[in-house]
Amino acid sequence: xxxxxxxxxxxxxxxxxxxxxxxxxxxxxxxxxxxxxxxxxxxxxxxxxxxxxxxxxxxxxxxxxxxxxxxxxxxxxxxxxxxxxxxxxxxxxxxxxxxxxxxxxxxxxxxxxxxxxxxxxxxxxxxxxxxxxxxxxxxxxxxxxxxxxxxxxxxxxxxxxxxxxxxxxxxxxxxxxxxxxxxxxxxxxxxxxxxxxxxxxxxxxxxxxxxxxxxxxxxxxxxxxxxxxxxxxxxxxxxxxxxxxxxxxxxxxxxxxxxxxxxxxxxxxxxxxxxxxxxxxxxxxxxxxxxxxxx
Length: 295
Fold this sequence. Notes:
Elements: H1 6-16, E1 20-24, H2 28-36, E2 42-44, H3 46-54, H4 64-77, E3 82-85, H5 94-106, E4 111-115, H6 134-147, E5 154-159, H7 161-165, H8 167-179, E6 184-187, H9 193-203, E7 208-210, H10 222-227, E8 232-235, H11 238-257, H12 270-276, H13 279-294
Parallel strand pairs: 1-2, 1-8, 2-3, 3-4, 4-5, 5-6, 7-8
Helix pairs in contact: 2-4, 5-6, 8-9
């Protein structure tokens, strides 16, 4: 494991890869797969925790401890810097935001993004979102920054204002958040490539593009996003969606056919799984311990 802090590793990755691809990892196993594929940073989605770990909608139902459980499981086995979705901060006061930040640092996260929706939040690509005042969002950022026990830990401000109040309001909010101490900016549900360039010019901080499937934002390529001065590209649930579809297909086939033989070629093999989680190294260590006891 690296001796630098997770936050510093995240900042270094943003500086080294332009734009930095940040891929969603729904669990610890997927974090290892993302690292194996060559990614330099990973992401834990709030919607992913809700749907994947709890089987409920992303409507502000999950709590801090739900997310921390998945954070710890990921950071225990994977040293890639982890960006975590903390929704609105898991509470209505600055004390809640501060607790969230301190807990994320303690559990090994590298960065968080905190948003300006009301407590009864919705997915950023759904209609009828409501946002708090600009001042309340600025206060959330100030509380997060003040609570840092590690200066390298990244505070990212997400704004959903584009869909609610328009581009100028979203730009004003983003700029105000950076002035309040946010390190990076996440403008949600962007509809045009040029908008990213406008945000980057206005806030003078790294901009994250959320390239989620089936949402309001087109599936821009890294080359296109680089031309628009985007600093980070997020793929929050791509592998999760594929995993879910594959699981449904397997369940349907087994129930229909009375066997898994017709879908076996779609599965990861036992040996592939063992290789991905370093099974044999654990087994060899266990064998060595047993050998010592016998001697």
